[in-house]
Amino acid sequence: MEPYFVVTPPRSEETPVVVEVPHAGLFVPPHFACEMLAPVRSIARDADLFVDELYEGACDEGATLVVSRVSRYVVDLNRAETDVDADTVVGGPSSPRAPRGVVWRLTTDNERALAGPLTREKLEARLAEIHRPYHAALAAAIRGKLERFGVCVLLAGHSMPSVGRSGHGDENVQRADVVPGTQGRTTAAASLIDLVEQHAREAGLSVLHDEPYRGGWTTRLWGRPSQHVHAVQVEIARRLYMDEAVLVRGQAFDAARKFTRTLVRKLGAAGRELSA
Question: Which domain range does residue 134 map to?
């Protein structure tokens, strides 16, 4: 069976950077498939397709790369274990509503993704098999950077539909090319946040901080500049690297891959300066 996630160590001189890609996966373990209703096309549309390939050169820039292979419909690794509601898990809270929590029951097109509420036991199975091991591996990678460099820079690699969909508050709104999510510039040093913006603008790309994504659970969990862990979620509009209508790589894919690899290189150098 395909591994749920893959950790790839640096292939060149190591830097303080960890890149995590939690949403590129499409794999649905067979023993969880019977609990899902999501159309196959929705699984692909709601994945961060090809983002694992965009960042595959990160290891050649000294970063550690953590990539999930599992569909976010099975378990969303950028959500807390408690991010559920009563329609998703039996006995869950009635509010706040969590249709796209740690288990998705609705797609971003508001179609049903889950056949019915999971029992606590079925939720626990997903957490125990996938969510906790992934985050244990991510935590180990971060600790390794802290032990070696005294600092870690966590880049959470994501992509977003270029235009807001019905499941979001910005329906039909054209999004910026790059959205750094840092919870109001609180999860990383200002110099690192500015570096991401400057890198995008030098590439001729538009930037909008925290809109519509402020950085998910992983960014909030690990973004502790006072403890020398700096986390930035980087959302890239899919128009920059793929054809969103037919879900294939676009003509500018190589340019987008160069953009991400260079960003990892710059963050590595900046991380070393913070550790000095």
Answer: 5-79+122-275
Residue 112 in any domain: the answer is: no
Is 64 in a helix, a strand, or coil? Answer: strand
Q: What is the reported pTM?
A: 0.96
Sign of CA dihedral 81, 221, 184, 213: negative
Q: Can you point out the beta strands (E) in 143-247?
A: 152-160, 178-181, 229-237, 242-243
Strands 17-21 and 5-8: unpaired
Identify whether 258 is part of a domain.
yes
Q: Could you report the per-residue pLDDT of 223-257, keeping only the tens digit for each?
A: 999 999 999 999 999 999 999 999 999 999 999 99
CB 162 within 8 A of CB 239: yes
pLDDT at 141: 98
Q: Max Cα separation, the chain? A: 53
Structure tokens at 111: 């179609």
